[in-house]
Amino acid sequence: MKLNLKNPLVFFDLETTGTNINTDRIVEICYLKVYPNGNEEAKTLRINPEMHIPEASSAVHGIFDADVVDCPTFKEVAKDIAKDIEGADIAGFNSNRFDVPVLVEEFLRAGIDIDLTKRKFVDVQVIYHKLEQRTLSAAYKFYCGKNLEDAHTAEADTRATYEVLKAQLDHYPEVLENDINFLSEYSTYSKNVDFAGRIVYDDKGVEVFNFGKYKGIPVSEVLLRDPGYYGWIMNGDFTLNTKNVLTKIRLREGGLTK
């Protein structure tokens, strides 16, 4: 089934130095931009992460320090990537929980405060897990009837994710709508305010903390009740995006933590 698009949809996949969205870096990015008329543009970039790629990570994606030593840093290509995804909705496999937060962190480190708040995010893994609960390789086999060659390379995983989403629309016409707004909503478990999910919207649309001793408590209430909590987060091991979101809430609430 051809995707019914109002905006371009960018499928993307990252290979990284590890799984910590706060500190690990991108070593490869592939994105496939699908336009409403069906045209496609694909790009794959190797990135110098400016840090050692742990052997355990290299064992998964096959990218070693020597492979990226002469590649550009993310900061050197950040503007081009931001331009390529400008105005597009975003799709991936486990992208809401990992790839999107990591990409946003890299943009922030590069000094690019890209605004993704108006984008729609389609996580093909969430759709798959809600309906079948398997891995990308199994999803590709199940929906597309083919073995996923070169799994854990960004290009192969990106292309497979695109094919799986189209096949899911064919497979579940009674459940899924060929509409990005619907797919974005369906492939989201929670309504994150920040990409790491440390702050979420509750049922009333109020921003609440989603972790720790103040889990479920409105952020504005915590800032008023415990002013030091803001400083603890700002100095702690949290993503730059989480800190930026918290700061915007603090400023909006009139500097409650002063």
Automatic annotation (TrEMBL):
<keyword id="KW-0378">Hydrolase</keyword>
<dbReference type="InterPro" id="IPR012337">
    <property type="entry name" value="RNaseH-like_sf"/>
</dbReference>
<protein>
    <submittedName>
        <fullName>Exonuclease domain-containing protein</fullName>
    </submittedName>
</protein>
<feature type="domain" description="Exonuclease">
    <location>
        <begin position="8"/>
        <end position="174"/>
    </location>
</feature>
<dbReference type="GO" id="GO:0004527">
    <property type="term" value="F:exonuclease activity"/>
</dbReference>
<keyword id="KW-0269">Exonuclease</keyword>
<dbReference type="InterPro" id="IPR046768">
    <property type="entry name" value="ExoX-like_C"/>
</dbReference>
<keyword id="KW-0540">Nuclease</keyword>
<dbReference type="InterPro" id="IPR036397">
    <property type="entry name" value="RNaseH_sf"/>
</dbReference>
<dbReference type="InterPro" id="IPR013520">
    <property type="entry name" value="Ribonucl_H"/>
</dbReference>
<dbReference type="Pfam" id="PF20600">
    <property type="entry name" value="ExoX-like_C"/>
</dbReference>
<dbReference type="Pfam" id="PF00929">
    <property type="entry name" value="RNase_T"/>
</dbReference>
